[in-house]
Specification:
With 365 residues, the protein is an alpha/beta fold. The chain has two domains: 7-44 and 272-358, Aspartate Aminotransferase, domain 1, CATH 3.90.1150.10; 47-268, 3-Layer(aba) Sandwich (Aspartate Aminotransferase, domain 2). Helices cover 39% and strands 15% of the residues. The chain is built from 14 helices and twelve strands. It has helices at 7-10, 21-28, 47-56, 69-79, 91-103, 119-126, 143-148, 172-181, 210-213, 241-247, 258-268, 271-295, 315-324, 344-359; strands spanning 34-35, 86-89, 109-113, 130-134, 154-160, 187-191, 217-222, 235-238, 306-310, 327-328, 330-333, 336-340. The strands form three sheets. It has a seven-stranded mixed β-sheet with strand order 2-8-7-6-5-3-4, with helices on both faces. A three-stranded antiparallel β-sheet has the order 9-12-11, with helices on one face. It has a two-stranded parallel ribbon with strand order 1-10. Helix 4 runs parallel beside helix 11. The longest helix has 25 residues, at 271-295. The radius of gyration is 21 Å and the shape is globular. The structure holds pyridoxal-5'-phosphate. Residues 39, 91-93, 117, 160, 164, 191, 193, 222, 224-225, 230, 235 line the site of pyridoxal-5'-phosphate.
């Protein structure tokens, strides 16, 4: 007799993260390695965070505040909403999981893009939902096609703006048109992991105001990207009290650890760090785009902290050759690669190594 797994589990494969810097150094015997693979903040995090964590190290024996009271209050105050409209989670990854568990029944249709954050389809499949996959158009969400995919069986729609991995965005007008066309019983998850990096004035910069008009929207944000706290696993969700109180039924009681809660509160108080991170990203993006232009490399227009480009060669081979030279990027599919925008030192090193690799005789996919 062998053990049996739920049928949905058979359709899944585990997430494969990139290699840690230390492993790459050892494997190739090199001392300088830059990780530009996971959209992390190359500047680290706010110094206020380290101070706050130091203070809370005396309380590691105590369970965290299961309601994350201080953090909810801090976020709500900053955004001008009620603490009951805010729910922190152990990364927004965890919230994607909780949302799937709360809303998706077996056989429900769930609409998502073909090239987007992989957890959407994994958690949908995990629950026995039927993924209705809508191709991107010009590397951007095709909201009209998503609208046309809605049926009586549609339960939930995953949106990511700006999108990971393409970095592209859709406008406030496009979002509002879309929201107006979706039946109010359909849940819309609106993932804004990169919103703080957006430079375009057409972006829905005030998405918080949507909570008022659309009781079916769930907004996801994270401290992993511009706040630089990916290691701590902390994100937050904005939605109606009605939605959040139901998601709360399946939440593990102490899902957000104390250090993460303390760190997030401190991070919210450092606007200077956010400004520096935004500026560093903007400068790095301009440099990388200029370099790509001069190399004849095409890429999707990015509003995020990463760029999706066409290397013209088999992406896994370019990835391996770059890794040997001390740059870790994320191969996507065919000839496409995602590179996270780094410090100028990292960006320059990446471009110099990419030039070298593209001159090699690597397969053109
Ligand atoms: C990075 C990312 C997240 C954040 O994940 P965490 O679990 O908060 O680290 C969420 N959504 C998208 C689209 C992302 O790229």
């Amino acid at each position: 007799m062998t053990v049996k797994f739920r049928s949905q589990i058979q359709a899944l494969t585990p997430y494969k993260p990139g290699k840690p810097i230390e492993d790459v150094k050892k494997e190739y015997g090199i001392s300088k390695v830059f990780k530009m693979a996971s959209n992390e903040n190359p500047l680290g995090c706010s110094p206020l965070v380290k101070e706050a964590i130091n203070k809370s190290l005396d309380y590691l024996n105590l369970y965290p505040d299961g309601n994350a009271t201080k953090l909810k209050y801090a976020i709500a105050t900053k955004l001008g909403i009620k603490p009951s409209q805010v729910q922190p989670s152990s990364g927004s990854d965890e919230m994607v999981d909780q949302i799937a568990k709360t809303f998706i029944n077996e056989g429900d249709e769930v609409i998502l893009a073909d090239v987007t954050f992989p957890r959407y389809i994994t958690t949908t499949t995990m629950m026995g939902g039927i993924p209705v996959v809508v191709p991107l158009k010009n590397f951007t969400y095709d909201l009209d096609a998503m609208k046309r995919s809605i049926t009586d069986k549609t339960r939930l729609i995953w949106l990511c703006n700006p999108n990971n991995p393409t970095g592209t965005m859709f406008s406030e007008k496009a979002l509002l048109d879309f929201l107006d066309s979706v039946p109010s019983h359909v849940i819309i998850v609106y993932d804004e992991a990169y919103n703080e990096y957006v430079t375009s004035p057409e972006y829905p910069h005030n998405s918080v105001s949507l909570l008022e008009k659309y009781p079916n929207i769930i907004i996801l944000r994270t401290f992993s990207k511009i706040y630089g706290l990916a290691a701590l696993r902390i994100g937050y969700t904005l939605a109606s009290e009605h939605i959040l109180s139901n998601i709360d039924k399946i939440r593990s009681p102490f899902n957000v650890n104390s250090l993460a809660q303390t760190a997030a509160v401190a991070a919210l108080n450092d606007d200077e760090f956010l400004k520096d991170s935004y500026a560093c990203n903007k400068e790095g993006k301009a440099y990388l785009c200029d370099s790509f232009d001069s190399m004849g490399i095409t890429y999707a227009p990015s509003e995020a902290n990463h760029i999706f480009f066409d290397s013209g060669k088999e992406c896994t081979e370019v990835f391996t050759e770059l890794q040997k030279r001390g740059v870790i990027v994320r191969p996507m599919y065919n000839t496409y690669i995602r590179v996270s925008i780094g410090t100028m030192e990292e960006n320059k090193f990446f471009i110099s190594q990419l030039k070298e690799v593209l001159e090699l005789n690597v397969a053109t996919a």
